[in-house]
Amino acid sequence: MASKLEALEQWVNQAAALTRPARIHWCDGSDAEYQALVQQMLADGTLIELNQQTHPGCYLHRSHPTDVARVEHLTLVCHPNREDAGPNNHWMDPAEAHAKIDALFDGCMEGRTMYVIPYCMGPIDSPLARCGVEITDSPYVVANMRIMTRMGAAAQARIEREGTFVKGLHSIGELDPERRWIMHFPAEFSIKSYGSGYGGNALLGKKCHALRIASNQARTEGWLAEHMLIVGIENPRGETHYVAAAFPSACGKTNLSMLIPPEGYRRDGWKVWTIGDDICWMHPGADGRLYAINPEAGFFGVAPGTSDATNHNAMRSISHDTIFTNVAVTADNQPWWEGLPGAPVTDWQGRPYDPANGPAAHPNSRFTVSAKQCPTWSETAEAAQGVPISAIVFGGRRPSLLPLVMEARDWSHGVLMGAAMGSETTAAATGAVGVLRRDSMAMKPFCGYHYGDYFAHWLSFDRPGAKLPKVFHVNWFRKGADGKFLWPGFGDNLRVLEWMIDRAEGRASGAETPIGILPDEGELKLDGLRLERARLEELLEVDNASWQAELSAIGDYLASFAPRLPERLRREQQRVVQA
Ligand code: GDP
Ligand code: PGA
Ligand code: MN
Ligand code: MN
């Protein structure tokens, strides 16, 4: 039996024998290493310096124009048994998958440097954290991994102590969409990714490890790996409640995690604390509550729409030491995207800006920034035991039907609300935008196993002694007849979070409806908000006929997971139909 360190070295040697790099660099995660990589990328054009007076330490990366988002059709979950991947995943036989991708990896790093990146997902001393090692030939990936994870010597020391780590092999290859695969081997604890440098495809600690591989591990070990932000809401009495919320990509997680309270709330002393903006690992604690950590150390945020008006905390975070990908630039070389004041002169592809070519910034352009740069970053994000969760929130982009907020009557109903989630597709994945699709728990692209088993796993947390959070569903995106959003959103979402916390604390009674509990008359605090009464009524309207159609569609969708659909979830759907 090889020693723990030898296991790591053996795997690195194997990868080197396959990809044949000119040299191997073990990343220590130091500042000097980061700066040297930046200089090298500035020299070869991978990074472009932005205005260092206004944006010190900020750089722009322009990706290959066909490599701008996650590629769900090329993302595979290779369980030995096809059924375990479920209808929610693309599957290939593991042996066939290895053969296919190893043929691409063969000699792909010739003349290039191979970087070995040990990383830890979660606080380095947390028992809830898990480690991995990514091998890549992309310095851009190394720089981003340094921001997004606890990367380097400390992670390597933990790996050498524990011996277990997720093995991730990555190459940008030729950046050819025809030679691109993102493959997961849950049984082997490994990931192979070829042909893309885009965040969700290439920063393997993020979606590949912390969601697809971790969801499998969480299932066997009795915890949850979720596509959720974590936010702390401190009321004027100084009590903080933590909320975890699952919205699909580009549906408001980053914004909600760092929201700025409306004027009146600020005056009264409300504060918001950011713990995480994309991924949440939740474990049942000894007291029966769920405790959450953010496995990440940075934000990989959507740039368009981010402004001082919508997300001032993000704007302050990204004013220095940030990597921008596929944004436009202004005449004085500042980063620019739709939603910001000022004007672009160069678009995301480096061409002179011409509105005939579409938006100046790519709709899925991103910023990568250390979470510590966020003014509302909370120390509790470093807590080894995590933070206790008071409410779980599901939501998506639903132009109609779904009310602003509703509460599940119990855990089973909450799991149904999550499973039934639907949302319009966004630019975060390649393909059509604005198409309504089911996206259970916002995990459609990320659940690394059969959704039927996943729903059963969620239901299993309801057991004697459990003190589970209340479950809610929100919709910030309902539109009126004029085609405009009915709800102002952003900071005003705190009004909805306050109602949830009031419900969790027994301070609001709510109003029962067939689909769940909605705020009772006057329970949503709307002081200082200019919202016509008719629009509020529309936001909270429950149309029975349309709901019957929706419930029947939900029934059909759930049936697609038979025979692994838990009977309890099917019965729950029946109960709501008859309510
Ligand atoms: P994430 O990908 O889930 O983290 O989503 P983001 O927070 O980055 O938001 C994605 C897009 O939705 C951005 O363009 C935001 O400006 C927009 N957005 C976020 N929150 C709201 C909201 O409450 N209301 C509206 N109308 N748009 C929002
Ligand atoms: P997002 O993260 O959820 O912030 O968009 C990236 C992604 O899901 O691709
Ligand atoms: Mn995401
Ligand atoms: Mn985000």
Automatic annotation (TrEMBL):
Binds 1 Mn(2+) ion per subunit. It is an enzyme of class 4 (lyase). Residues 223-576 form the Phosphoenolpyruvate carboxykinase C-terminal P-loop domain. GTP binds at residues 250-255, 366, 397, 490-493. One of its GO terms (molecular function) is manganese ion binding. Its cofactor is Mn(2+). Pfam families: PEPCK_GTP, PEPCK_N. Keywords: Cytoplasm, Decarboxylase, Gluconeogenesis, GTP-binding, Kinase, Lyase, Manganese, Metal-binding, Nucleotide-binding, Pyruvate, Transferase. Substrate binds at residues 70, 198-200, 249, 364-366. Its EC number is 4.1.1.32. Coiled coil: none annotated. Mn(2+) binds at residues 207, 227, 278. InterPro entries: PEP_carboxykin_GTP_CS, PEP_carboxykinase_C, PEP_carboxykinase_GTP, PEP_carboxykinase_GTP_C, PEP_carboxykinase_GTP_N, PEP_carboxykinase_N. It catalyses: oxaloacetate + GTP = phosphoenolpyruvate + GDP + CO2. The active site is at 251. Belongs to the phosphoenolpyruvate carboxykinase [GTP] family. Catalyzes the conversion of oxaloacetate (OAA) to phosphoenolpyruvate (PEP), the rate-limiting step in the metabolic pathway that produces glucose from lactate and other precursors derived from the citric acid cycle. Monomer. This is Phosphoenolpyruvate carboxykinase [GTP]. It comes from Rhodanobacter denitrificans.
